Amino acid sequence: LYVPLNVGEEITHFMTFDALDQRQRYSEEEIEILLFLGRELMKAQRMERLDDILHDFKNPAIATAGFARRLKQLIEKEGLKDEDSKIKKYVQILLEETSRLQEMALSLYQVGKGQVVNLTEVLRNRFDINREAIKEQLKQNVSLKEGPFHDPLFVYCYPIHLERILDNLLNNATNAIPIHGGILSIRTYTHQNWACAEISNTGLISEEERLRLLEGEGRGRGLYITHRIVRLLKGNIEVRVGSDTTTLVVRLPIYQEEVPKVSKVN
What integer pLDDT is reported at residue 179 of this predicted model? Predict the structure, then answer.
């Protein structure tokens, strides 16, 4: 039995199994077990390769964040004219993104501490970053819409996790907009005990693809990461398909501050 092992669309290896007894074929159950073994072996190989890359990822991430902070300090020291406000904005974005890169590098070894975070503020910030990404990609005829928002809308999570969720969903929604253009919109609201972040884009998906998205099995590793983190935060994802739109809703538990119990004095 020959089992092809592939990375993406490319077959890189074959596993070969020889039966010790005489037989015409392997059973379906045996083939399924051997295929599972092949998938696990490829996962182990990818993890080993990833570990090599990540080992050297931390140092440039920390260095880049450090230089971004120095650049901001230099600009603040020298001062800028009012017409140079865009430079300040871009430097601030550079600082935030490189600092985030540093946090991601360090989180490979330690996750950090959970915090109370304003979901609306984080979504709007990531939307601004995605706006710049759209410009860099030279995507044409993409209209951006924001709101309405429920602000503030607090959740308890690791900030880096929340940013990764929203970045992946915004990136996927942007890429799903047809080549002739369309709309990308965001909003936040509450539903029962859930804090909801909604991302909509022009473009339709099939029912089969919708169900795959719900299971985190859509194309690309980003959705798998997103679903894994959402489950970690005790949330869920809903996918809705309209007449010409696809909408993803991320639901996370609303943060409710614990009220200290007051003991009664007799």
Answer: 85
